[in-house]
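Marked as duplicate of an earlier ticket. Keeping the data here for the record.
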Amino acid sequence: MFTDIGTIFAKKMEGTEVSLRGWAHRHRTSGKMVFVTMRDSTGIIQLAVKQDKVDEKSWKDANDTYVESSFMVKGNVVKDERAPGGYELQATNFELVSKGEPFPVAKDLSEEYLLDIRHLWLRSQKLTKILQIRSTVIAGIHEFFQKRGYTLFDPPIFTPNACEGGSTLFEVQYFDRKMYLTQSWQLYAEAAIFSLGKIYDVAPTFRAEKSKTSRHLAEFWMAEMEAPWMNLDDVVQVAKDEVKFLVEKVLEKHEEDLKFLGRDVEKLRKAISKPFPTVKYSEVLKILEEKEQMQVEWGKDLRTVEEERIMNHFETPIVVTHYPKEIMAFYKPVDPKNKKEALCFDMLAPEGFGEIVGGSQRSIDIKEIEEGLKKEGEKIEKYQWYLDLRKYGSVPHSGYGLGVERVVRWICGSDNIKDTIAFPRTMARFEP
């Protein structure tokens, strides 16, 4: 029976004989000793193989173990403060499973080269820990919504319509016609709420944005929700609750992993220790002018630089509401109290990580939607099925999308969003 490395540390198994299987993370020889740092998905541990404590085959196998060779080992767990984690395994048997060739990953390699060999770089401790944190975030999304009585609803990936503007659509050949990869589940979610009520999903999303920034991917995952009878204030509160819940889950399970990644966990704790402020777009412009000496014309969208500068004044995420209607998508309704503003919001993360959630109340005014579609250059006849939703018992409803990779990037403190997904797809990166 084999033990996970993490279990040795969790259960403090000093004095216990265990069998492990995994890969060589580091390897060095010293006379009649071989030292191997072994890894599996749960952690790393130092092995000491003494020539006089193992048989001849075990000794040969231990010497022949290159970095990333796979092997099985049996031995006794002992305390050793010099070893990583304070424990060492003194081997009594060592069996090489697959002798690896010289491994191409080393220190000080360029980011582009590491992306070229992403299939091997995935084995790094850094990416392993980030992807495990990502898994916890996604599990937390399901837990959050399931506890609140939401139903999981899966939309199509092929769509005939744009949701977030035609300029970022990925066109694909669909038999003898053109279709597009989904930009969002939203339009289909709005159809489903009339039967299922409160719904959510976690699914891949595609945007053909010609951007090479550290915040953009062409293929990413969004956690979206939609619910009938919700107004803007209601949906904003759900988003605040969800983000706080996800950070708490990660801190509970991955505090040591975050520290390994160089994340200041106290900043994360502080970020969720207080209520998240809600600030109108117009108020943001005033703060930027008064405290950052930045003049932003009313009606312009907030760029990365404005988002970063406004967050100089907040330690928690903030929600920015009531952006100018003129620059918003066709489905975002006008605020009856101010026709220039839309009933919509973005959530911005502190420390310069920018937008992590975007959502709105949904328009139920057919004429308003048609005018918005015309302005975006869309053919109204392609959206007749969507307009039907306003003809047969429509109700006020709202929803939002949470960018999984953006949230993981903020939580982990990652410099680049490419590190938050196994195989990133960008304007310039489509393989491996």
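See parent ticket for discussion. The first strand starts at residue 17 and ends at 30.
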